[in-house]
Design goal:
By secondary structure, the chain is an alpha+beta fold. 57% of the residues lie in helices and 14% in strands. It has five helices and six strands, in the order H-H-H-H-E-E-E-E-E-E-H.
Length: 242
């Protein structure tokens, strides 16, 4: 035989249109058998047990959410209280710093108060020495120089002297040692200064020791004149009766 085809090979002439129809049929059946795709509504029946479980889980989630919110509010309140406590502590610390600075400044300004008071009698004695020195005494200039040097040294520490002579008596600045009758000065005027006053950084260190003027008593002639006038009246009355 002249047939050159291999043994067992099968050859058939199938039209192409039949092949296409078969392919379309297979695709159609595959689509019908496939599960519902996207956009397809599927009716799902939920069992009562599953619905109850879902509701219980929802309630549990709500309870957990409420508990978390409550704990969050509690934590926020605690943080707020802690913040306020820290603010108060910072304010107290700032006030303490200011108070400590003020006390330190006062200590620097008024720490020499006791020492300055101990030196004031020395200044008083120099004043008395100058007041009692006779005119032309050669030591007067030296005593004045010593007093000026001492007052300058005190002034560097804020100590200053003030005089009260001729001023109205002020109990906040003056200490009255005696009262002096005076017809020339108004009552309450300082007419004698036993010792000058001193201040330390504008604070009174020692009041001035002064004598204060008071109204002079009536003169002795006035009662005698009054008695004479009364005698004249009595004598005139006796003459009339005689």
């Amino acid at each position: 035989m002249g047939d050159t085809r291999q043994k067992g090979a099968i050859q058939a002439d199938i039209p192409s249109s039949a092949v296409e129809d078969a392919l379309r049929s297979v695709e159609r059946r595959a689509q019908e058998a496939a599960p519902a795709g996207e956009g397809t509504e599927v009716a799902v029946e939920v069992e009562p047990a599953a619905a109850a479980a879902a509701a219980a889980e929802l309630e549990s989630l709500k309870a957990q959410l409420e508990l978390s919110q409550a704990k969050g509010r509690e934590l926020l309140e605690r943080l707020k209280e802690e913040h306020e406590r820290l603010l108060r502590a910072a304010a107290d610390l700032e006030n303490y710093k200011k108070r400590a600075q003020r006390e330190r400044d006062e200590l620097q300004k008024f720490g020499v108060e006791k020492f300055a008071k101990d030196l004031l009698p020395v200044v008083d004695n120099l004043d008395r020495a100058l007041a009692a020195a006779p005119a032309g005494d050669p030591l007067v200039d030296g005593v004045k120089l010593v007093r000026a040097s001492l007052e300058q040294a005190l002034g560097r520490f804020g100590v200053k002297a003030f005089s009260a002579m001729g001023q109205p008596f002020d109990p906040a600045l003056h200490e009255a040692l005696l009262q002096m009758p005076s017809g020339d000065q108004a009552p309450g005027t300082v007419v004698l200064e036993h010792a000058r006053g001193f201040t330390l950084h504008e604070r009174l260190l020692r009041p001035a020791m002064v004598g204060v003027a008071v109204a002079a008593p009536p003169r002795a002639e006035e009662p005698a004149a009054a008695s004479a006038a009364e005698g004249k009246k009595d004598g005139g009355a006796g003459t009339e009766s005689a």
